[in-house]
Design goal:
about 375 residues; mainly alpha; Arc Repressor Mutant, subunit A; 3 domains; three-stranded antiparallel β-sheet; 14 helices; flat; DNA binding; transcription
Amino acid sequence: MRFSVLGPLRVTDHDREVPLGGPRHRALLCALLVHPRQVVPADRLIDILWGPSPPRSAAEMLHVRVSEVRRFLRTDEPAPLLARRSAGYVLQAAPGNVDAEVFEELAAAGRRALAAGEAAEAIDLLERALGLWRGEALPEVAGRDFAAARIATLSELRARAAEDAVDADLLAGRHHDVCARLPAVIAAQPLRERPRRQLMLALYRSGRQSEALAEYDRIGALLSAELGLDPGPELRDLRVRILRHDPTLSAEPAPRRRRDNLPSPLTSFVGRAADRATLSHHLSSARLVSIVGAGGAGKSRLATEVARDLRGDFPGGVWLVELSPLLDPRLIVPTTAQVLGIPEHPERDRLDQIVAALRNERL
């Protein structure tokens, strides 16, 4: 069962759209999907459905609405997605089954890939993230206080992801494409400075220096008229660098040291968001994290995806060392050193002797 809130509310069951009833049924589901897996108090749901003057039988009517939504979702047993708790109700949808949470996961991974200089991967991840949007978030409850913060957060993340995608295009040398599509973005949000910087850079890389400088003048005049402000330091710095023909503005990316040896995925990887988040959390504080499970359960793919997610968090990169083919444990150290590019150490033979002696209790 998948829930889509990045546009008009949709629920699908194995690609079959689930009918959701009337406006109150949809509002109830939206209220539970603002923060999935969190209990929403019954009195708040009553206020959402009937406003400040609910009928006397509102508690019973809420129970009826919940039962009807359960029937729509066909989740009465064995463990309903929509569950009753002492204080209210909770929708127990997995993170990978709510498009807003999948979007946040993909956008964050795209941002990390961009920070690591991986243009192609960043473009792929960010396009997939932005492709989940079908309109404004949670339109059924737009303007309602209980949803305002979540809608604002998702809208800002969408704007940031779109800007990250432009940066990824610039990193990949697609400055002509950026010049073509950014003016419409700027017209929709004329006071955002990051798209202006991106357009200035794209124009400069396209050999249109005078237009790039004119773009700076336009945003400067607009900020002064609307907010009484000057352009920010990043815009000012870019203008100076354009005037000086700073060679670092070249469209050619600087050579980068390889940061990983992870295999390229042959298929997309959607879902298991909770497992990925748990692994990422443990890796932030532990030196070793083990994944256990039956053969064929997807442990290697999960580990590789988490490693790919975290590439931007480790200055030395993220590296895969295949140990399963090794039959002799003494090969673990040299194999690892070879993958990491660590040269042979003159004391390695002595180290092997010490390890052997310890095994034979000679020391």
